[in-house]
Amino acid sequence: MASTAAASPALCGVPKASTGGAASSRSASPCVPGSRFLGRTPLRRLGFSAAAVDPILAHHVAARSASFIRSAGKKPARGVVSMAKKSVGDLSAADLKGRRVFVRADLNVPLDDNQNITDDTRIRAAVPTIKHLINNGAKVILSSHLGRPKGVTPKYSLAPLVPRLSELLGIQVVKADDVIGPEVEKLVASLPEGGVLLLENVRFYKEEEKNEPEFAKKLASLADLYVNDAFGTAHRAHASTEGVTKFLKPSVAGFLLQKELDYLVGAVSTPKRPFAAIVGGSKVSSKIGVIESLLEKVDILLLGGGMIFTFYKAQGLSVGSSLVEADKLDLATSLLEKAKAKGVELLLPTDVVIADKFAPDATSKIVPASAIPDGWMGLDIGPDSIKTFNAALDKTKTVIWNGPMGVFEFDKFALGTEAVAKKLAELSGKGVTTIIGGGDSVAAVEKVGVANVMSHISTGGGASLELLEGKDLPGVLALDEATLVAV
């Protein structure tokens, strides 16, 4: 969130210091850093182009990766090149025709009390990879989890997904009543080319989350090769995401997983600048890693949500009864100091919407960030903050957003979050790369009705956060490396 001198000089956007380096060359201007044009690379692909979702971005990432590889004898930079994985798009029709392909998808969709799907986004996201496989004559064995079952739990059966999945694929999907065993093996044996068999919820087996080798081996025995298209579980070393890769080769990324890597690794590692990040949410503690990682990469950082009150408190401001993590005050101070040292323009809100209670019908009013009265709590950013944020975002070429600006579940306190969604939609129309990093931010852009215009919407909440923090994702690391092909 943003701040002004009126509230507290320490809360203002921090002027950027020139680093003097040609490679990064951030200018003394607080918001208009320079950037280098990377010339064309003699490499056809580095594992980023298969999804064909943004050729310019894919080329930019490939060029940047190639520059690391060309460094005399040096090991490629882990943050970029380790995510250049072989894709299902690299496999030829000959590689796929008649072959049994174990596909780990993320079909963990919400169901109502009548077992009706209330949001089929994840099913639709899995369709391109599955269609590519069946169109090339593969026999698809589809695996997923649903919910958090404790053993076999009927309400978490994948059966309700079959009609919608069949409709989207244009074929009748066969459903197995188990994940492994003789009956499943019979269904696999009878599966025609271009057919799809949906296994039961893989988490009905405790061995899945324990990544037990024997269970992974049984899963792998059903197929000839492996495709991971479940980004939402790629940060977990489970049997169906990591274990099976030890028994199936090739093991490659699906189009959805590849697209997530293209954007969340590619755009963040080599962004078009100025590069801004918007981070919200209720607690600093849940976003420490993301904020620290982004401070190494961004030019502008906007903070919102309940976490801002910890920053205010750390600077001696009154926050009323707003949410504060008392044990994170020193951390908040250090993050502000780190932003200044890095030359990052960090913006906190100049004003907030406060309420007399945490409820949708609470009495509310707008006050300066420095004037929250006792007994009142901040639940959203105010109109001046929205204007400040919008002005900062107008200067950007790449924006990533993770976390709401307020309690957007309550309409009265959703304006800040909705304003960010609308602004990013506007910027998308102007050619700015806009990345929605999972979780509540996705719900926000869908609520506002602008999801379809964003450059990329991540399907994984926890996986997105861990990737943005710079952590390795076991389900990605286990896949085959991309092959460099000279042209």
Automatic annotation (TrEMBL):
Pathway: Carbohydrate biosynthesis; Calvin cycle. CDD domains: Phosphoglycerate_kinase. It comes from the Eukaryota. Keywords: ATP-binding, Kinase, Magnesium, Nucleotide-binding, Transferase. GO terms for molecular function: ADP binding; ATP binding; phosphoglycerate kinase activity. It catalyses: (2R)-3-phosphoglycerate + ATP = (2R)-3-phospho-glyceroyl phosphate + ADP. It is an enzyme of class 2 (transferase). One of its GO terms (biological process) is gluconeogenesis. Its EC number is 2.7.2.3. Transmembrane segments: none annotated. Its cofactor is Mg(2+). SUPFAM superfamilies: Phosphoglycerate kinase. Monomer. Belongs to the phosphoglycerate kinase family. This is Phosphoglycerate kinase. It comes from Genlisea aurea.
